[in-house]
Write a structure and sequence with these properties.
single chain; mainly alpha; two-stranded antiparallel ribbon; globular
């Protein structure tokens, strides 16, 4: 990063207490030192708030960096999309921890719901990325502490690093936290009810292996299949979870329980049936042959559509599948934008003035709009012009939030007429 105060001049190596100027040597030192500090952190309790999170980072990296435990002072990015901009770091962290506190630290939840909420929390924390370095390790220890206190212990060493990185990348670019929830659940010490995905081509979830479906097959367009999935998938997920619990309670055979877990993972997976229907459309497939009857439950219907999609997925060449996956997962944000800031800007535009004032992250922005409108009234502008100036200022502020820029009163003075909406940035 050019002109990065955190690195030695002319290099990408972070300044450190050990005076190491070689990236590989620093990486190995980080690994050894944070492993030792991590073993200590596992026996400590950090307060469930932003200050506690900073204290955790400081504990892990105290031997390496002077700035351990401090919010970064530079903007950083990955894959062309930026993490939360510096002016919003503290607010975003406070918001995430306030949300967790309001939900009692996710305590007292069924296993599936706990990991779903924990996955969402970690996904949002990843989008903030408050530190210049060491965010991933801090998040893993943070997740382990939350899980330990909620009674769903995670073994950090059991977290699959490759799956973690993929879930982090996918969640950052799309806002979908289900992959992260799956990774964390897979590292749990007790996994009686944890779904276990069967992974097929290009990392896609597949249904348990079974004989070909019986019954009259009908040709279903992929558009119709997606409509069916949107209608039945929510209920199918609940039925799959209930079925697994019942099988375990009744002491069903191990193979039956394993298949039920795989089926539950399939209907929940980020690369499950809906994703596969989009992928096949991209590859030029227009229809599938599925066994569909009016008597089917939502789970049975989703299962049959999923089986039909799986037949087509397995018929594709691996090289074609990989190219299609890469194309579908390109960042959906323009370079220089972060998902969290996009959502914050959209919320600002959707909220009423009262709601913005009630939100500490958006209150300063709404104050600028109010000041611009009051200035227009003081000039004797018509009510229509005052409203126009207010709307224009709102849009300018939303664009500034998206780009991570500083909010200053000058924004209001720069908006005499409505600003054109940038439709290419809408999500």
């Amino acid at each position: 990063m050019a002109d990065d105060p955190y690195t030695y001049p002319g290099t990408d190596t972070l300044r450190n207490k050990l005076g190491i100027t070689d990236d590989k040597t620093l990486t190995e030192a980080e690994r050894r030192l944070t492993l030792a500090r991590g073993a200590e952190a596992a026996r400590l309790t950090f307060s469930p708030d932003a200050e506690g999170y900073r204290a955790l980072h400081k504990h892990l990296f105290q031997d390496l960096y002077e700035w351990a435990g401090q919010d970064r002072t530079v903007n950083i990015a990955k894959g062309g999309s930026r993490f939360a901009a510096v002016p919003y770091l503290a607010r975003e962290m406070d918001k995430l921890f306030a949300d967790m506190s309001a939900k009692n630290g996710f305590r007292g939840l069924p296993r599936d719901e706990f990991f779903d909420r924990l996955g969402n929390h970690i996904n949002e924390m990843n989008a903030v990325h408050p530190f210049r370095e060491g965010n991933g390790r801090t998040m893993r220890h943070h997740a382990a502490q939350i899980a330990r206190e909620a009674g769903h212990t995670i073994r950090i060493a059991s977290i699959d690093k490759t799956e973690w990185m993929e879930a982090s990348r996918h969640g950052f670019l799309t806002g979908d936290h289900r992959g992260m929830a799956t990774v964390l659940a897979a590292a749990a010490v007790q996994r009686d009810l944890a779904p276990e995905a069967r992974i097929g081509p290009a990392g896609m979830a597949m249904l348990p292996q079974r004989p070909p479906p019986e019954g009259q097959r009908y040709r279903v367009t992929l558009t119709k299949a997606r409509e069916e999935l949107e209608r039945y998938l929510p209920a199918a997920r609940q039925q799959a979870a209930d079925r697994l619990r019942t099988l375990i309670k009744e002491g069903a055979p191990t193979t039956t329980i394993a298949n039920a877990r795989t089926e539950l993972a399939y209907v929940r997976h980020a690369k499950g049936p809906v994703y596969q229907s989009h992928l096949l459309t991209y590859l030029g497939v227009r229809q599938v042959d599925a066994v569909i009857t009016p008597q089917q439950t939502p789970l049975e219907r989703v299962r049959e559509i999923g089986a039909a999609l799986g037949v087509q997925i397995n018929a594709q060449q691996q090289a074609h599948l990989q190219r299609a996956v890469r194309s579908l997962e390109r960042p959906i944000l323009p370079p220089g934008h972060a998902p969290g800031q996009e959502r914050l800007a959209a919320q600002f535009l959707q909220n009423t003035a009262e709601k913005n004032h009630a939100d500490p992250r958006l209150s300063p922005a709404q104050a600028i709009v109010d000041a611009a409108m009051q200035t227009a009234r003081d000039r004797g502008e018509s009510a229509r012009m005052v409203s126009t100036i207010g709307e224009s200022t709102r849009q300018l502020i939303a664009d500034r939030i998206k780009a991570g820029g500083e909010l200053t009163p000058e924004i209001g003075r720069a908006a005499p007429s409505p600003a054109p909406r940038d439709k290419d940035r809408s999500r």
